[in-house]
Fold this sequence. Notes:
CATH 2.40.50.140; 5-stranded mixed beta sheet; alpha+beta; D-amino Acid Aminotransferase, Chain A, domain 1; about 350 residues; DNA ligase (ATP); EC 6.5.1.1
Amino acid sequence: MDLPVMPPVQPMLAKTARAIPPGMQYEAKWDGFRAIVFRDGDEIELGSRSTKPLTRYFPEVVAALREHIPRRCVLDGEIVITRGGRLDFDALLERIHPAQSRVRHLAEVTPASFVAFDLLALGDRSLMDEPQSERRGALTRALRDAGAPVFTAPATGDPALAGDWFDRFEGAGLDGIVAKPPQLPYRPGERALVKVKHERTADCVVAGLRQHKSGPVVGSLLLGLFDGGGRLQHVGVCASFPMRRRAQLMEELAPLLMESVAGHPWEAWTSEEAQAGGRLPGGPSRWTGKKDLSWLPLRPERVVEVAYDHMQGDRFRHTAQFRRWRPDREPEQCTYAQLEEPVRYDLAGFLTSGQVGG
């Protein structure tokens, strides 16, 4: 491979804002695997956000890229899987599997798509120093003849339309809006873009904790909600505390620590079978294959209000943010019924619409 922009490349990132800023280019924030595509003739490499290779996990994407993109180019985009008219991140996670036979099977039953939103190189020319507006124009021209499952991300300069996307497409699993300054060159690894994400709050039961890697202080709180059958389901974690607060939390929660998991709603999680069955606290990482089964059970008596952006199935898609303790709430009141369900919207028309694709 001999391209003007060579792997590895860290993708340009975004910092969070509360409102959509004016005077920018706006795109939907895709909930998938960020991927930098390097193509030189028949050779194609997919690099992840951490620069780890993704190529072997998405053979159908590689085949589609070989058919639809220029023979020498570097693209920034997102690998996504759409099922039932919305993005399915869990199906993406299943693709990170060591067995090639399993990867091939999933490529057939849950094929992925690639949504391109930036062009870093074309032919023998690097576009990294070109402004965003120029790169966008070059991208739409380079992919004007592309077809499914390779798409150009819809974009607009109209903040009102971006706000409409922000509201309408959440039900399809989109993560929010990304705003890009028109004059911005491509800055690998820098948070030079702006992202606006949905935020809601929920009252959750704190039923366990993980200790921080630095020592016996809280690393994260394990959160639960009661389902319709009265079972406490794990819905995610709350983390990102200052170090002093981690120590305070350990002191606050010490009276709730259980000597063992016996009698805890999640006591089955210590079994290998349970760990293999889903994303449980301390479960194996699909990226590293390593296990960390260390979590401390707490009597499920404390309620915390957390902020979250959106749900992926029956759990929080991203790490929730601590807001406050709720001593005025009983654990039994922490149910799925309190969660707001956005209206669903089919992505197909959005991806293929020509009216906002330029």
